[in-house]
Amino acid sequence: MDNHFPPTKIVCTPKLQKEDGAGFVKSLVKYIEKHFNVQNPFFKKPLGFEAWWVDMSGDVSLLTKCSEMFFYLCIQSHYPAHINDVQLEPQLPKKLSSPFSVLIKFVNNDVSIQDIKNQMDEKYESIYSCHDLMGTNTSRARHIRIDFTDRNDYDSILNGGQVSLFSQLYDVKEFLEAPKLLIWY
Questions:
Q1: CA–CA separation, 53 vs 30, rounded Å?
Q2: Please, which domain of life does this record's source organism belong to (predicted)?
Q3: What is the DSSP letter of 28?
Q4: Which residue ranges make up each domain of the chain?
């Protein structure tokens, strides 16, 4: 089974009609292509989406299996303000899927998420989100998941193996999602 990333939704004002969708998506890809090719010089596949649709409310949803395209679209500044007199408001995901996610293990509970994010933002430019990993809280420590949009920052923190937060060293590991299993009886 092919794995897709979650759909990227773009709220459009004014709302699109279904017949206007093809022209809209074509213009969006044309806009994206300029900067995308500069940022991803070794990407040789044709740029596009596996699927797209205009929903009942007149907004556009885009579906891709390409990680480079998905991560590119997770950054607000990569979208134009308008296409064909239609104002765009992308709905970005709250967290990314795991290809560029790391785990900082056993972070002291006294350190807030916002403090961690602020300190990590000083070292790494491409941090997308930073949050507690559910189910890891103990009375003294918890694990923190950090999502990156850039492979270089991701590789840099992983290769270091540790990160210093408020002068204390913490182990950094690759975050691997639980496998999706289908059990047949």
A1: 18
A2: Eukaryota
A3: H
A4: 8-91, 98-174
